[in-house]
TrEMBL record:
Residues with PTM N6-(pyridoxal phosphate)lysine: 35
SUPFAM superfamilies: Alanine racemase C-terminal domain-like, PLP-binding barrel
Catalytic activity: L-alanine = D-alanine
Role, per record: Catalyzes the interconversion of L-alanine and D-alanine. May also act on other amino acids.
Pfam families per record: Ala_racemase_C, Ala_racemase_N
Cofactor(s) of this protein: pyridoxal 5'-phosphate
Binding-site residues, substrate: 130, 302
Residue span(s) of domain Alanine racemase C-terminal: 233-357
UniProt organism field: Ottowia cancrivicina
InterPro entries according to UniProt: Ala_racemase, Ala_racemase/Decarboxylase_C, Ala_racemase_C, Ala_racemase_N, Ala_racemase_pyridoxalP-BS, PLP-binding_barrel
Protein name: Alanine racemase
Principal EC category: isomerase
Length: 359
């Protein structure tokens, strides 16, 4: 029998979340963001459920290649654009649209001998100060691109730094509106947080949700995924591979970080930090055993973690355990560990077998 640990990717939830995202921006087309191997879910495992999107956005050329191999003929956008000149040949061959955020990428396009003109998304740095042209240099970059025979169509893009926070998007949005005023071309602004919290203000031709599609809240704990009407797209499940009894004063796990106050039963789960479960999760991190909510105990090991069986007297060797997913939000687990759902799902380890639940 294989080690009892499994990630299940729920197609019904992915489809539901895509519909939920469309409802938030009914006029916009939707890029399903599938970078980082679909946030750890696996591009091949999510593809059928998300093929109702208008396009897929990602970073790596080999991920774009995998999407084409799955038969996707629609738009694919490289969110960071190309990394070296010869990537432009791959863009021509696979018909990839790409972001242009710096002068080097324009230089490469100008040198590129292509038969198929490119569609590019010119990126404005509207205040995040990560990628993109500064507002004062945006129009010059646009003019350079517009003069190139290698470029067929120019769209406009920016990315918000505080869509999930108190500052919101208004300032950056105003910078974007001004920098792009009067320039022809489609616009794309919103990630999940902007889409769910501010879509009414930031209407655009394309929206770019990632995390919402996977059923995690972009602004937990202000809002939970269920507050946003999202469903978890991945369940990480395991079983108890051991049950041990401890007495008052006995300690559990490396470093003995948990000390029993009285006699109790401790379950040992076949999941640890080498599977992607956060080692930072302290005693008290929520977990389901036999569907009953309980807590982790002590330090997470490489391959195992311990859980309190006090609320689950019926639990025994082989009892099912949910680390996150249906019945237990990944955001709650992440929050307990001092991180966010994005990190947990995208750090799911390659050694964890994964299947799609296509129902
Ligand atoms: C990752 C990414 C997104 C998606 O962000 P979420 O917060 O997951 O919705 C959108 N746009 C860009 C440029 C990104 O890099």
């Amino acid at each position: 029998m294989p080690r009892p640990l499994l990630a299940t990717v729920h197609h019904a939830a992915l489809r539901h979340n895509l519909a939920r995202v469309r409802q938030a921006a009914p006029e916009a087309r939707v890029w399903a963001v599938v970078k980082a191997n679909a946030y750890g879910h696996g591009i091949e495992r999510v593809f059928e459920a998300l093929r109702g999107a208008d396009g897929f956005a990602l970073l790596e050329l080999d991920e774009a290649e995998r999407l084409r191999a799955l038969g996707w003929r629609g738009p694919i956008l490289l969110l960071e654009g190309v990394f070296e000149p010869r990537d432009l040949e791959t863009c021509s061959r696979l018909n990839l649209w790409h972001a242009v955020h710096c002068d080097e990428q324009i230089d490469w396009l100008a040198m590129h001998k292509t038969h198929q003109p490119h569609r590019v998304f010119l990126k404005l740095n509207s205040g995040m100060n990560r990628l993109g042209f500064a507002p004062g240099r945006y129009r010059a970059a646009y003019a350079r691109l517009a003069a190139l025979p290698q470029v067929e169509e120019i769209s406009h893009a920016t990315h918000f730094a505080d869509a999930d926070g108190a500052r919101g998007i208004a300032l950056q949005q105003a910078v974007f509106t001004q920098a792009t005023q009067g320039l022809p071309g489609e616009r794309t602004l919103c990630n999940s947080a902007a889409l769910l919290r501010h879509a009414g203000d930031a209407s655009s031709d394309w929206v770019r949700p990632g995390i919402a599609l996977y059923g995690s809240s972009p602004d937990y704990p202000a809002h939970s995924a269920s507050d946003w009407g999202l469903q978890p797209a991945m369940s990480l499940t395991s079983r108890l591979i051991g049950v041990t009894h401890v007495q008052a004063g006995e300690r559990v796990g490396y470093g003995g970080l948990f000390t029993a106050q009285g006699p109790m039963r401790v379950g040992v789960v076949a999941c640890g930090y080498a599977d992607g479960y956060p080692r930072e999760a302290p005693t008290g991190t929520p977990v389901l055993v036999e569907g009953v909510r309980t807590r982790t105990l002590g330090r997470v090991s490489m391959d195992m973690l311990a859980v309190d069986l006090t609320p689950v007297p019926q639990a025994a060797f082989g009892s099912p355990v949910t680390l996150w997913g249906q019945g237990l939000s990944i955001d709650e687990v992440a929050h307990a560990a001092g991180t966010v759902g994005y990190v947990l799902m995208s750090a799911l380890a390659p050694r964890v077998p994964a299947v799609a639940d296509e129902g």
